[in-house]
Design goal:
By secondary structure, the protein is mostly beta strands. The chain is built from 7 helices and 50 strands.
C-alpha cells in the first residue's frame, strides 16, 4: 500500500505540475513579447530580490550564461542554500539523484552513473573523498558556508578534474565580487519524530552558522569568513535479512536469518571557510581559499541477530507459502545473538588553494593556481555479543514469524530478552571456533579501518582574446597533480583473556554497572532487549583483544598513488550561422596517468606472513570537446555538446593486494569454479572507463526568473570494469598446506582467481525535462506562486564481457521526478518538495564494513518549509524558519534476486523537524 501510494503521489504531483508548466509556457511566450516592448519606454525602479526568487534568478542566470550544458544552485541569501545539505539540493536538479544513508542524502549520481563517475571540485579545484573510493560524501560540506554549486553535464577542455558523468563545482563567496559588507548568523533547533530509540542516545540537535564579508583598502582587499557547527541526531528502525535460501525441490524460499537494529546516530560537524582576495590594480588579482572540516559521528545499534534457516534452527512443517516465498511459520531451536554495538567515525577534511592572475599589456591573462586537499578518517566498529550461553549451551527460542513481502519480518518470541539472569556475555553461535591460531570465545569484534587521502595540484594557464574569424579567444594550460590514498585495517576478536585451549572462560555475567536500561524492538515484534554500554566492558577489563591472525585481514590494506598530467587548448567561438548567432568553444585535453599501488599478498611458503606486493600502469588519452550555443532569438537557445570523458577505476579496485582462500567444504569438489583453492584481489593495471557523449538541449527563458528546458544525451561506454572477472590458476604451490590425507581427497588443484578487469561496454542515454516558472506567466494575481519541476528518463545497457548478459549500472534509476511548489510574498515564503526516484543498484555496507551492491527500491521523499523575513522596522534583517524533512517517513528498502518481496534492508528514519532564526547585521 505504501509503495503504491508513494508512486502515485510522485506521478500525481508530476502530472499536475506538467499541466501547469504547459499553461505557463503558452502564457509566458505571449507575455514575454508584450513586456519587452513596454520595458524600452518605462523607467523601472530597482528592486532588490531576496529569498527563494533570488536563489532561482541567480541559478537561472548561471545556466543561461554558461557555454556548457549545466545545472546550478544558488544561495537564497548569505549562508542559506535551499536545503540543509548540499546533496539534498543537488538531488533536486534535472538528471541528478542522491542515495540516502542513515536517513540523510550523502552521495550523488549524475545521469544514472554512480558517485565514482562524478568528480567534485571546490572553487574549481579537485577534492579528495572521505570514503573508500572517489565518490565525495557531500555531508562533509556544510550548506551554510557555500554560495552555490554548478554541475557541468558537458565539459570543456579547460575543466580540470572532469568526471565521466558530470562535474559538481562547489563555490564559496568571492568578497570583491560581492562588493558589500555583511554579517549574518543562523541558528536552528532540530529534532526527530522517532525521538530516541536507545536510552543513551540524543534526540535533539542544533545548527549554528555565521558569515562575514567585507572589503578594505579602497576595495582592493576582500575577506569572507564562514563557520558552521552542527549536532544532528537521527533515529533508524532497521530490519536486515541475511537472505532467502531455497529449502526444497520446488525452490520455495524462506528467510535465512535476520539482523534487526534500533539505531541512534549523532553527527557532530564543525566547518570553516576563509577567502582572502587582493586586487591592487586592474592587472593583478590574487586570492587564497582555505577550508577545514571536522566530522564526528556516533552510531548506537541494538538488536538481536537471529540465525534461522542458515543455522541449526529447525523450520517446522506447518507454514504458509505464497508464490514460492514462505510468509508464515515457526523456527525452533533458535540461538539468538543479542547485539549492543557502537560505531564511531572521526574525519578531518582540509583544502587550500592559492590563485594569481596577471593581465599583460598585450592582452594575455596569465594564471597560476596551487592547491592541496586531504582527508583523514578513522572508524571504530565495535560489536558486543550476548546470549543464553556459548554455542550448544543455554536456552533456545521458538520463534513464530510473519514475513510481509517488501517490508521485513515480524517475530513472536518465547524468551525474555530483558532478563539479565538469562543472558550473559558469550559467543552464542561459536563464531570464534574457527579462528586462526586456535578456537576462542568471540564475544564481540573490534574493527578499526582508516583512510588517508591527499591531493596536490599545480595549474598554469594563458588566455587572450583573438580576432581569427569565428575564433574569438584562445586558452592554453597545463595541470599536474599527485593523489595518494591509503587504507589500513585492524581487526580483533573480543575474548575473555585468551583462547579456549588456554583455559579462558566461555561466558561472563553482564555487570550491573554496564546496564543502562532496555531498548524496544517493536520493529520486529519483540518487546525489548537489555541495553548495556560496551565501552564500559572494554575500559574495565571485561574484554581482551586478540588480533585476527587470518592473513586475509592484512590483504585488505592497500595504497594507491596517481600522478596525472593534463595539457589542454581551448578556443572560444563567437560567430553566426546564417542569421543565428553561435557562441561556444572547442578544444582538446591530453591526459597522462601514472598509477601505482602497493599492497599485501599471501606468500605460499609462509602463509602466516603475507608479503608486500606492488604494480602499476601508465596510459595517455586524448579528450576532445565541443560546446555550441545557437541563439534562436526571443531567449530561445539550442545547445550542442560533444566530448570524450574518462573516469579512473575505483581506488579499492586498483589495489595490489591479493588474498588467498581455502574452503574445506569443497575439498573433494572437482569443479574448478567451486574448488578448495581460490584467490581474489585488485588490479593496478586497470584502464579508465571511457565515454563518448553527445548532448542536445533546448532552453527557453522568460526574463530572469523562469525557463523551460528539454535535453537528450547519449554516451557510448567502453573499458567498463568488470568487478567480478575471474580466471583459472594452478594452486600446486599451495598443496603443502594440506595434510597427506587431505591431498588424497583433493578434487582439483585448479581454482578461480577473481578480481576486477576491463571488459566490454555499452551505452547510457536519456531525456531530461525541466521547468522553473512563476505564476504571473499564467495570470498576474498568481505572481507569488511558483513551480520547479524536472523529470529524467534514462536507459542503459552494458555488457561486462562479450556474450554475457547486460548488467544494471550502479546508481541508475530509470525514472526520476522532482517537484517543488513555492509561495513568496512580502517576506513570507512556503515551499513543498517531492523527490521520486525509481529502483537502482546502490552501494551499501556489508560484512565487516565492506561495501556491497544491492537493488534499492523506489522511493518518494517529501520535504516542506515555511519562513518569514522582516524587511523593515526594528526587526529588519530577522528571519524565521520552520522546516520538515521526510514528512511521510519514506522507508529505505533493498532486496535481492530481483524480487521486491525478498527484503534485505527495510529502514525507517522518521521525519526531521527544524525551527530556526537568522539575522543579517
Amino acid at each position: 500500500m505504501n509503495t503504491q501510494f508513494s508512486r502515485r503521489r510522485a506521478w500525481l504531483m508530476a502530472g499536475g505540475a506538467t499541466g501547469l508548466a504547459l499553461a505557463f509556457a503558452v502564457a509566458g511566450s505571449a507575455q514575454a513579447q508584450t513586456t519587452t516592448t513596454a520595458a524600452d519606454d518605462t523607467k523601472v525602479e530597482e528592486v532588490v530580490i531576496t529569498g527563494i526568487r533570488a536563489g532561482l534568478e541567480n541559478s537561472i542566470a548561471l545556466k543561461k550564461q554558461s557555454t556548457s550544458i549545466v545545472e546550478a544552485i544558488s544561495a537564497e541569501d548569505i549562508g542559506k542554500l535551499p536545503d540543509t545539505s548540499i546533496a539534498e539540493s543537488l538531488a533536486r536538479l534535472p538528471g541528478l539523484t542522491a542515495q540516502r544513508l542513515d536517513g540523510r542524502a550523502q552521495v550523488i549520481s549524475i545521469r544514472g552513473l554512480g558517485p565514482d563517475f562524478t568528480s567534485t571540485l571546490l572553487n574549481g579545484r579537485e577534492q579528495v573523498s572521505t570514503g573508500d573510493n572517489r565518490g565525495v560524501e557531500f555531508d562533509q560540506y556544510p550548506s551554510e558556508i557555500l554560495s552555490g554549486v554548478v554541475v557541468y553535464k558537458t565539459p570543456d577542455a579547460g575543466l580540470i578534474g572532469q568526471g565521466l558523468s558530470g562535474t559538481a563545482d562547489l563555490r564559496t563567496i568571492r568578497p570583491l565580487t560581492y562588493g558589500k559588507r555583511i554579517l549574518s548568523a543562523n541558528a536552528r533547533y532540530e529534532m526527530n519524530s522517532e525521538k530516541k530509540l536507545n536510552p543513551d542516545a540524543k534526540d535533539t540537535g542544533h545548527r549554528f552558522s555565521a558569515t562575514y564579508v567585507n572589503q578594505f583598502a579602497n576595495d582592493t582587499v576582500g575577506l569572507a569568513l564562514a563557520v558552521s557547527d552542527i549536532s544532528t541526531p537521527t533515529q533508524s528502525k532497521r530490519f536486515n535479512a541475511w537472505g532467502y535460501p531455497t529449502i526444497n525441490a520446488a525452490n520455495d524460499r524462506v528467510i535465512g536469518g535476520a539482523k534487526p537494529y534500533v539505531q541512534s546516530n549523532n553527527l557532530e560537524r564543525f566547518g570553516a571557510i576563509g577567502v582572502l582576495e587582493y586586487k591592487p590594480n586592474d592587472k593583478v588579482t590574487t586570492s587564497l581559499d582555505v577550508y577545514y572540516s571536522e566530522f564526528q559521528e556516533e552510531q548506537i545499534l541494538r538488536g538481536i541477530e537471529l540465525p534461522l534457516q542458515w543455522s541449526s534452527a529447525t523450520l517446522q512443517p506447518t507454514r504458509t507459502t505464497s508464490a514460492g516465498l514462505i510468509t508464515n511459520g515457526t523456527f525452533s531451536g533458535v540461538k539468538g545473538v543479542m547485539r549492543n554495538d557502537l560505531n564511531t567515525r572521526d574525519t578531518t577534511l582540509k583544502s587550500a588553494g592559492w590563485n594569481l592572475n596577471y593581465l599583460t599589456d598585450n592582452g594575455w591573462s596569465l594564471t597560476a593556481d596551487l592547491s592541496y586537499s586531504s582527508a583523514d578518517r578513522t572508524d571504530v566498529i565495535f560489536e558486543s555479543y550476548s546470549g543464553t550461553g556459548p554455542n550448544g549451551v543455554g536456552a533456545t527460542d521458538t520463534l513464530g514469524f510473519t514475513t510481509t513481502p517488501g517490508a521485513g519480518t515480524m517475530f513472536a518470541s518465547t524468551l525474555d530478552y530483558t532478563d539479565r539472569n538469562l543472558f550473559k556475555l558469550t559467543d552464542p553461535q561459536g563464531w570464534g571456533g574457527g579462528a586462526s591460531g586456535g578456537a576462542l570465545t568471540q564475544a564481540g569484534f573490534y574493527n578499526t579501518p582508516s583512510i588517508t587521502d591527499e591531493l596536490t595540484a599545480a595549474r598554469f594557464t594563458a588566455k587572450r582574446d583573438l580576432e581569427w574569424g569565428p575564433v574569438k579567444s584562445v586558452e592554453f594550460g597545463v595541470n599536474a597533480s599527485r593523489r595518494e590514498k591509503d587504507k589500513e585495517v585492524h581487526e580483533s576478536f573480543l575474548t575473555f583473556g585468551g583462547r579456549i585451549a588456554d583455559g579462558a572462560p566461555t561466558s561472563r555475567a553482564i555487570p550491573q554497572e554496564a546496564i543502562i536500561g532496555v531498548a524496544k524492538l517493536d520493529l520486529i515484534g519483540i518487546k525489548a532487549m537489555l541495553a548495556y554500554d560496551p565501552t564500559y566492558l572494554l575500559k574495565n577489563g571485561f574484554y581482551t583483544l586478540i588480533a585476527d591472525a587470518n592473513p586475509a585481514v592484512q590483504t585488505r590494506n592497500w595504497s594507491v598513488r596517481e600522478d596525472v598530467q593534463v595539457a589542454y587548448a581551448k578556443f572560444g567561438v563567437d560567430s553566426q550561422v546564417g542569421s543565428i548567432p553561435v557562441t561556444g568553444n572547442f578544444g582538446l585535453q591530453v591526459v597522462r596517468t601514472d598509477q601505482f599501488s602497493k599492497g599485501v599478498a599471501v606468500n605460499p611458503s609462509a602463509p602466516a606472513s603475507p608479503t608486500v606486493t606492488d604494480d602499476g600502469a601508465k596510459y595517455t588519452y586524448a579528450l576532445p570537446s565541443l560546446n555550441l550555443t545557437f541563439d534562436a532569438g526571443n531567449e530561445l537557445y539550442i545547445r550542442v555538446g560533444a566530448a570524450r570523458t574518462l573516469a579512473r577505476a575505483r581506488m579499492d579496485e586498483l589495489r595490489a593486494s591479493q588474498s588467498f582462500n581455502q574452503n574445506t567444504s569443497r575439498l573433494t569438489s572437482t569443479d574448478p569454479n567451486n574448488s578448495y583453492f581460490s584467490a581474489n584481489g585488485g588490479n593496478p593495471n586497470l584502464r579508465p572507463y571511457i565515454a563518448d557523449g553527445v548532448d542536445v538541449a533546448v532552453e527557453k527563458y522568460f526574463g530572469r526568473s523562469a525557463y523551460l528546458s528539454a535535453a537528450v544525451y547519449h554516451k557510448e561506454l567502453s573499458n567498463f570494469v568488470n568487478s567480478n572477472s575471474s580466471s583459472y590458476k594452478d594452486f600446486s604451490d599451495y598443496l603443502f598446506l594440506l595434510s597427506t590425507a587431505q591431498q588424497a581427497q583433493l578434487g582439483t588443484k585448479i581454482g578461480l582467481v577473481s578480481g576486477p578487469d576491463n571488459g566490454d561496454g555499452g551505452y547510457i542515454r536519456g531525456l531530461e525535462l525541466s521547468a522553473s516558472l512563476q505564476g504571473d506567466l499564467l495570470w498576474e494575481p498568481l505572481k507569488s506562486f511558483g513551480l520547479i519541476i524536472s523529470g529524467s528518463f534514462t536507459d542503459s545497457k552494458v555488457t561486462l564481457e562479450k556474450g554475457t548478459n547486460p548488467i544494471t549500472i550502479p546508481g541508475l534509476s530509470k525514472t526520476v521526478v522532482n517537484t517543488t511548489f513555492y509561495y513568496e510574498k512580502n517576506g513570507f515564503n512556503a515551499r513543498i518538495s517531492n523527490r521520486y526516484r525509481g529502483k537502482f543498484l546502490g552501494e551499501v555496507a556489508g560484512l565487516s564494513a565492506a561495501r556491497v551492491f544491492r537493488t534499492v527500491d523506489k522511493e518518494s521523499v517529501v520535504d516542506a518549509q515555511v519562513g518569514y523575513e522582516f524587511r523593515d522596522g526594528p526587526l529588519n534583517g530577522l528571519s524565521l524558519l520552520l522546516q520538515a524533512n521526510n514528512i511521510t517517513n519514506e522507508p529505505f528498502k533493498t532486496y535481492e534476486n530481483d524480487d521486491p518481496r525478498q527484503t534485505i534492508d527495510y529502514q525507517k528514519y522518521g521525519a526531521t523537524y527544524m525551527v530556526g532564526v537568522s539575522y543579517r547585521f
